[in-house]
What we know:
Two copies of one chain form a homodimer. The first copy, chain A, is of the alpha/beta class. Chain A has helices at 3-14, 59-71, 81-93, 107-122, 139-146, 175-195, 221-231, 253-256, 283-293, 303-318, 321-340, 371-383, 408-426; strands spanning 28-32, 35-38, 43-46, 100-104, 126-130, 157-160, 200-206, 235-239, 263-266, 277-281, 346-352, 355-360, 386-387, 389-391, 397-400.
Amino acid sequence: MDIKALIQRRERLLGTQMPLFYEEPIHIIRGEGVNLFDADGKQYVDMYNNVPCVGHANPRVVNAMQTQAATLNVHSRYLHEGILDYAERLLGLHAESLSRAVFCCTGTEASEIALRMARAATGGRGIICTDATYHGNSTEVVRLSAASRDPEGNPEIRAIPYPQQYRSLDSNASEAELCALYLANVRAAIDDLAANNIPLAGMMVCSLMVNEGLPDIPAGFMAGAAEMVRVAGGVFIADEVQAGFCRSGRWWGYEESDFVPDIAIMGKPMGAGLPLAGVVARDELVDAFRKKTRYFNTFASSPLQAAVGMAVLDVIEDDDVRSNVNSVGNYLRAALDQLQTDYEPMGDVRSHGLSIAIDWVTDRESKAPDTEGVNRVINRLKEKGFLMGSGGSLRNALKIRPPLIFSRENADAFLTAFRETLQEFYGSA
Amino acid sequence: MDIKALIQRRERLLGTQMPLFYEEPIHIIRGEGVNLFDADGKQYVDMYNNVPCVGHANPRVVNAMQTQAATLNVHSRYLHEGILDYAERLLGLHAESLSRAVFCCTGTEASEIALRMARAATGGRGIICTDATYHGNSTEVVRLSAASRDPEGNPEIRAIPYPQQYRSLDSNASEAELCALYLANVRAAIDDLAANNIPLAGMMVCSLMVNEGLPDIPAGFMAGAAEMVRVAGGVFIADEVQAGFCRSGRWWGYEESDFVPDIAIMGKPMGAGLPLAGVVARDELVDAFRKKTRYFNTFASSPLQAAVGMAVLDVIEDDDVRSNVNSVGNYLRAALDQLQTDYEPMGDVRSHGLSIAIDWVTDRESKAPDTEGVNRVINRLKEKGFLMGSGGSLRNALKIRPPLIFSRENADAFLTAFRETLQEFYGSA
């Protein structure tokens, strides 16, 4: 297969500048478990994809999809028990106060629902987010990503510096002092909205701040921010699209970050590849949203979404996937911490379960981000058969987030290849 | 099965005021072809659902879904031929100028892409739509529906009276005069945006104005409006979510309404129930969009979307579904025209292929909309085993839009039940 010809055909049909991974993109034709296979039969261990959380082509998920599609798949203005059973089970996994669900198809749609819900319920308009966030690609939701670059163009949004400990606002501050510093920015955003006569609707953050680069959030920040926002009349929205469904070793990122949101957004792993996303929230918030918007989504709350979503939960629980995330996550983290002592470019290793970020730097002193270095490592590991990506606010974090069934053997194979790569590029430890 | 208990459970889990059909909602558990079956085994002929265009649980579609899901389903930042083959085939069915595709998951997302594309390519902000439209449920897209009620709250949107012949702006005008009258409203909207220093981005309309009530659009309106918009620097966006995929008897509603758009939006029937939607447009529009937005959609352009979308096209072409739409559509229309001569409440019968609207009125003279009457008919036909809905700008149109495989035998069965219902409610002809 001629990769260049394939890229040209792609540009002709789908347009130029459609995102594509790797210096030499790969042509994947099959997936199974944690493995992907290219057109030449080369096998890759997938350490990038969080959507196929229970493994590529999981037979139970595929079977549930096939069985339901062959039986019934229709919109939600008829009664059907499937979506009720699914909603009940999903809500049962959440904090008790999150008691009603709204389903949709993508994380972007879930973010749209959350924003509309916050505004419908509070009557406010102002939204607080972080300065390195991404919650989706609609006109309204991209405002959150754009607000830090263009505050005047997004007058209802306030972007605060995301809380972190590695490149913090004050390198001499204790964790508690840092928490107070970052909370002061939330306070300032609330006050600035008020000063501009923009009533607060809420604050929206990824529970683990994955796009920001999975920072070590100072303890107490999330609960403190949520409290501040509520006192000011807003609601606190947790984006669980990347943080949820056991990624952190707990069911939800907000458990890992020790707070309870008013609204939680879910997506990516929820349907293991079937477009399935949703929002859970407190009763009165969902009711205010439905009353105000009469929200209806043709493809959502369907028997197909319910059956597939349920199969994903079945596999996670029956196969005790959460224990695997904790044990393999801890194992991998310990090995990476060990490697970090030998390799200067691994400036900071941060993780929650099987979501890991390694902050790649030119040197430990300056902490200058080394995007070129991390990309060299990513492309070399791809050659060696391990797929991962980069991310974070400075684009210099090695982003590791394999399917949740990633095993200790997979981790060992990766660690061997990673050590080899570090040796090739940076010399023996 | 206790319907009331099911409704209560639904309200508890999904919130109150989630849309539900019929005075006595139905509990559907299985679908096959044009038929749906409830929990008591009662069979219904589905004359409402346009999503399962090739029939409920179509075996070829289900098989394509199962086979691909068992093989690979991953995001689009790796190369895959499936989505390229599908894009090429889909683009081949469109006007030659629509040469590149962007895929997403829902009609709302497709509308978002079209709006962002129009604005990215033109640098404009202003959008013209009709005063009875619905293009989706995101914050930005609902502005189009809200603009006629709240023009000041939506300063970049101009809603024009939708063109029609039944309750037209001037009942004495000829069709050509009506066309000129309605085009004058487009002109006025363009001028008003310019007077307010809002550069035009474009105009967005359903090619058959289905939500407006499937009006008989004065000939020449759509092409005339498109020309006006282009001269003013905007692009013309055709919403094919309901109008496309042979619903009208032609592949696209814009062919039926005799114009070529710059951007076309697709959804609903595209994946026969799998969330699959998309946009096709001229090269430079897609490229401007991709360059400006770096659009990426986790679940879209996937091997699964491609396989299912392709299977839908296969069935439509192999089973000559388009011919069926034309022959059954014409047959049904002729019978309804005949019935109209006997029944006063059938104020106006309008159709394109298997999209039919019967404008229900209290009397022919006043043309006063009879929403109660149409709902009584819909609920009675449901009891007799035929599912349809109401719609249109006045909510008084009987909306008929069965799966495209709806047969002449299905039509005869419906016509018998419909005649019976008319006799019951309005006496013998």
